[in-house]
Amino acid sequence: MTAATTLADATRAVTVPTRSGVALTVRAAHAEDEDALAAFFDAVLPEDRRFRFLAAAGHLDHTRLLPMTQVDHWRTESFLAFDQATGELVGSAMLACDAAMETGEVAVSVRGDYRGRGVGWALLDLVAHEAARRGLERVIAIEDRCNQAAIDLEKDYGFVAHGVEGDPHLVMLEKVLA
């Protein structure tokens, strides 16, 4: 990813290619995206939805979608990825930073029929670059230990795994950006 493909503000969309050749248009989410985001999460595999929210999650209602559609676009950002060929929403990523703007937590979800096509990697790369651009020192992801696909992806991207004290079911993956 280059500086030209980072999101400099909440109104800009960028083109992000995946390793499989899918061209994504990625932009910040807004309140009017709630219905599209609800439909997107309905198309995410149930197990992936559980991993994303670390709890059983069926159809996401307004309360669950609100933190993904109404953000401040600096400390918290919600990204939507659309397949340029079809216009369909195929990925979602969040960056939620601490108050000191030192650490950002990332979360990525990919529609079931787009898994294995590089969408998750492309979104993780975009979010990590955005975190660095915003001056963060590190990014973390909290994963269920059973979510081996996400853990492997993050490790391949340079994240280091640590246990989560008090919860043997979770693992924290960390990437230092400095």
Descriptive overview:
This protein is of the alpha+beta class. The chain has one domain: Aminopeptidase (3-Layer(aba) Sandwich), CATH 3.40.630.30. The protein is built from 5 helices and 8 strands; from the N terminus they run ββαααβββαβαββ. The chain has helices spanning 34-43, 46-53, 62-69, 119-133, 148-156, and strands at residues 13-17, 23-28, 76-83, 89-97, 103-110, 138-144, 160-163, 170-176. It has an 8-stranded mixed β-sheet, sandwiched between helices. A hairpin with a 5-residue loop joins strand 4 and strand 5 (103-110). The longest helix has 15 residues, at 119-133. It is globular and about 40 Å long. Mean pLDDT is 90; it is low at 1-5.
Which descriptors would you attach to this protein?
178 residues, alpha+beta, Aminopeptidase, eight-stranded mixed sheet, 5 helices, globular, disordered N terminus
What is the second-level CATH architecture?
A: 3-Layer(aba) Sandwich
Beta-strand percentage range: 25-35%
- Give a short account of the largest sheet: 8 strands, mixed
- Tell me the radius of gyration: 15 Å
CATH superfamily: Gcn5-related N-acetyltransferase (GNAT)
Distance between the termini: 17 Å
State the CATH topology: Aminopeptidase
Count of all domains: 1
Dominant shape = globular
- The pLDDT mean sits at 90
CATH domain class name: Alpha Beta
Output the structural class: alpha+beta
